[in-house]
Structure of Assimilatory nitrate reductase catalytic subunit:
Amino acid sequence: MSLFAQQEQVATDSLHVIDTQCPFCSVQCKMQVIEDRSASDGKSVYSVVPKPNQASEGRLCIKGMNAYQHVLTGERLLHPMVKRNGRFERMTWDDAYELIVSKFNNLREAYGNHTVGLYGGGSLTNESAYVLGKFARVALQTKYIDYNGRFCMSAAASAGVKVFGIDRGLTNQLSDIELAECIILAGTNIAECQPTLMPYFTRAKEKGAILIAIDPRETGTTRISDIHLRVKPGMDATLANGMLKVLLEEGCLDEEFVANRTTGFMELKAHLDSLDMEEIAHLTGVPSQLIRKAALSYGKAQTGMVFTARGVEQQTDGHMAVRNFLNLVLLTGKIGKPGCGYGAVTGQGNGQGGREHGQKADQLPGYRLIENPEDRAYVANVWGIDPSELPGKGVSAYEMMEKVHEQEIRALFVMGSNPLVSNPNANFVEEGLKKLDFLVVADFLNSETAQLADLILPVTAYLENGGTLTNLEGRVLLRKSGRPAPGEAKHDWQVLCELAEKLGRGEFFPFGQVEDVFNELRLASRGGTADYYGITYERLRKEEGVYWPCPEESHPGAKRLFESTFPLPAGRALLTTVENHLPKEQTSEDFPLYLTTGRVLVHYLTGVQTRKSPSLAARDVESFMEIHPRTAKKHHIEDATLVKLTSKRGEIYVRSRYSDAIREDTVFVPMHWGDTQNVNKLTNDALDPTCKMPGFKVCAVQVSPLVTEYV
Ligand SMILES: Nc1nc2c(c(=O)[nH]1)N[C@H]1C(S)=C(S)[C@@H](COP(=O)(O)OP(=O)(O)OC[C@H]3O[C@@H](n4cnc5c(=O)[nH]c(N)nc54)[C@H](O)[C@@H]3O)O[C@H]1N2
Ligand SMILES: Nc1nc2c(c(=O)[nH]1)N[C@H]1C(S)=C(S)[C@@H](COP(=O)(O)OP(=O)(O)OC[C@H]3O[C@@H](n4cnc5c(=O)[nH]c(N)nc54)[C@H](O)[C@@H]3O)O[C@H]1N2
Ligand code: SF4
Ligand SMILES: [Mo]
């Protein structure tokens, strides 16, 4: 039976059918999880059926097919657990809340409100993210809140706001992809990271599109490309300068578009004129002829799309690097038309919505700014407080870890993240977390960070927790709750509301059900950039999803942005002059290789969930280091042996994997493992000056065989 012929299942006495969507990446593929209780031994058997929907078109990848496993493994956190004498003991919710209130209040009395920090995540539903942001500002009145999306979308988001006036992952619907005659995939590995989107690209190819991939390694994505630019890690901004120079010299500009819809052209032209192509080729490691070929393919095509993801963005110049790719889009006028646009390929399930409703240090719901007096007044009014009660802006996620280290933050509440494994410079982060007076972690699995906590709060997982999530297209989707909370687990937003009550601020959190939260979010975002006002649960139940901005219930939602104008002064987008720029950490005699980091198909982020899924874990049981065989020989590394990787900040132990598909000056290690395989023990904590994105994608390392002495 083909995938598409499969029928949706209907519940019977022995079949329990859950209509849901995948908890992992930003595509948010829809599926049914079916529990069959008919077996004579009483054990349930689970199966998964993909459901047709506009984004995944009825496909599921291997992670989605197995996503039910970590929820049902028997390893769930079921009760609040307090650490006493180094061991976790069960505690009631009432006692847990009392403990939090007394710890937080004692610290706030001694050190002020900002001594408590909150740290959220892009897996939280819009409703939980919204309540978390409000909880920080209204219940605790602390400025210190940020979230893991800082490590994910901040470079693209800040570039989008600056250049276009708005940040929405894709400016187009996915269906526009196959209308593009040329597609640039810069630092994005769709094949492993959003696998169900691959057919959009292969269909474009079948129609004759030219695909250009920019990646230091060969991946499932680069393999479908026609031109692969194997850039030196961290040199994308410079590579884009080379491509822009070719476009300019060969007259591949849309002059009318540049004249009528952009500003900054003359400065950009003068800058590009001053650059030397051979120097760019040398700096990027990409031959100038290949840069030229790629630029002309994009420049001469009638339609085209540019996609960037973390390869370009997780750099200490990530903000500017993205802006240089946006220059390509604007100079050729390839935006706001069918088959023309840009996509920052959003990462987490709710990586898009999670960054819109107030989890970020400087933002209030609807992308309003916490430092803008009008925005403060508007949101304070919705919340029923005086604007002067709202704290100002805090700091970015890693900077919060610095504040933890300095003990300016003495209590931390983590909801939906595993910062010990996902922050750069993990040894420093661990040292800081251990100094905290009080660490609370709300999770449904025992993450590395939860193991360090003083108190763990058990929350519901995707099968139980209903709410909205916004996928990579900016389409808001409703995920239904499909099974009761196990044990004593509660929904994230529910925990925050109950805690607000215990803190004496319950009147501001009067939400009986998740839809009540959404209705307040609609109001709080009304008139903001990410306007959800016109989106209702009723609409979401009837329509498959609604795109924001959607200012009125009668509004259809914005499918393609910037068709006639940009939300910036005079309606014009901004061209940017971007200098050639080297990564902050360079290789040296002691650390002779570049390390870049990223993902593999079967694991998700810090691996807390996928490592607990037997079917996924079995495919990649441990971390590895991809290395070119010639480089390996130079460093006396055999294939499939344990090696030690060292940077200025720490060391880890992983198994070597020979691959002639990676640059000889670079090794690659995925990010999905903790402890001695936590690659972030090596990564550099230098941050992009604008968006505070760490340079996860480049640092300098040494590799050596791990010699074991047998006695
Ligand atoms: N299987 C899987 N899928 C996921 C996730 C996961 O953990 N596992 N996570 C989700 C999330 S949160 C995110 S953010 C996305 C991430 O999605 P991607 O950004 O596509 O994933 P990465 O593997 O981090 O990086 C993409 C590519 O960048 C390349 N790269 C490394 N350094 C450079 C460089 O300097 N320049 C360029 N041009 N390329 C470089 C890497 O070799 C890699 O192939 O995936 C989402 N989907
Ligand atoms: N070296 C390196 N480091 C990186 C990256 C990289 O490419 N290289 N990528 C960065 C990126 S793009 C990202 S997005 C971050 C991600 O970093 P993290 O946020 O640390 O990643 P996760 O593994 O998703 O951690 C989420 C935790 O929250 C739990 N969780 C999941 N859903 C929910 C929920 O609904 N509620 C609650 N309360 N808990 C939940 C999970 O069980 C897990 O323990 O890592 C960043 N770190
Ligand atoms: S991981 Fe992403 S592509 Fe795979 S099933 Fe889940 S949402 Fe779809
Ligand atoms: Mo991410």
